[in-house]
Amino acid sequence: MCQLFRYTGGVTQETRWLDAGQQQAWRAYLRMQGELNARLSRDLQANSDLSMADFAVLVHLTDVPDGRVRVLELARNLHWEKSRISHHIGRMEKRGLVRRENCRSDGRGAFVVLTDEGREAIEAAAPRHVEQVRELMFDNLTDEEVAVLARISQRVVDKLTTACDEPA
Predict the structure, then answer these.
(1) Does the predicted model carry a pTM greater than 0.85?
(2) Which segments does the entry list as coiled coil (predicted)?
């Protein structure tokens, strides 16, 4: 797991508090993220009987040509713990959305495989979901704001990725 805070060997560093503008931006971002996720989750569940977690798994599986991904690779891509992915895949298996297959070349590994039912579920849910994303997020932004949002998001992701690559 990535460690963003490092032990400084007893050296005290002054806290770099957020200024008023940064604090306002941070709190607005947190509120936006929470409300947007809650609304999209409620809508997805009500209209497709899929959770956001189900949708995330199915998206990853539809992004690969044969609809199969190693369990641990899927967990890494979703930033989930091994136990969470295992339990969630088990619940999705019971509903017929995915199945597990043992890896023939590696007896320890397993694949998560998209079923026909899983493909049908995401194909049915995706149009409504993307319309909600468009309506709640992108219809409120100009093309320039979308480009700025993409650059900001990528810069933060790059920082997080770099922080995870550095030794603790």
Answers:
(1) no
(2) none
